[in-house]
């Protein structure tokens, strides 16, 4: 909350309002997120497993609705406005968790049918293509993260490597066909944000890397340089006033400027500890579905944090990924909390089963 309150001056400058109003809105999302986390963590994971298909269908419906009726920002339709309260929700945040839940279920229930191409394509590969396809049009970076995490889950779930490689090759060919079609027939506008993706790539790695058009990435690196080892102090950062999305997509650079390199390294260490604890919880689970689900959630959270850091340090082109649990963002905060609540529900179940087992041994 302190960092978000400090990083919103650019939002006040562009959208109006006061820092306190944005902080109040952020606190509301945090309260909702932590309440959801607490409620979810007291539920048995078996209910999530049973509802996996329904959750996936809801996610697809939400993405389709967003595709046609979503709120457009920067030529991208990613948000759904909640009636009455007026808050926006990014449907892809719910969809990526829904896909991980469904894949975790299918990697267990369909394991004996992995050798069947028909069953593998329809039951496992098709859901990945649906979610990534609906998201990629307006949010390529999120679709790429989901695709990568899905492939890692397939590998962990012992899905045949030949099928994974075939899936990757087919995806590359399909992407190539779509790009060539978009270039040859621009009037169809198959990939409306294709020019944006290309420009971001060349701004990051090409000769335009130091141009005025790439000032957001330049300001992010300047903020990291300005922070030094100990930072300029909370609230005293200068570059946050000129870096768009300093409170979200460029959170890490703003954090380094005010808190310093030592705190930034500590932040990385904390994310790694969180990932390690999630893996431990998943590996200790007696149910294979719970193991896959915990690992998938851990990969999603860690990958999103890594992408934010890579963008801010110039290792990746500019994308729209914020820092889990830290950056300002309503749906991202709430779904991160729900995801962690699911992991905690698995840990809670493991703990209860362990206590029950110990009590039975003592009674014997």
From TrEMBL:
It comes from the Bacteria. It is a multi-pass membrane protein. It is found in: Membrane. GO terms for biological process: cell division; peptidoglycan biosynthetic process; regulation of cell shape. Keywords: Cell shape, Glycosyltransferase, Membrane, Peptidoglycan synthesis, Transferase, Transmembrane, Transmembrane helix. One of its GO terms (cellular component) is cell division site. The keyword Glycosyltransferase applies. Belongs to the SEDS family. FtsW subfamily. This is Probable peptidoglycan glycosyltransferase FtsW. The lineage of its organism: Bacteria, Pseudomonadati, Bacteroidota, Flavobacteriia, Flavobacteriales.
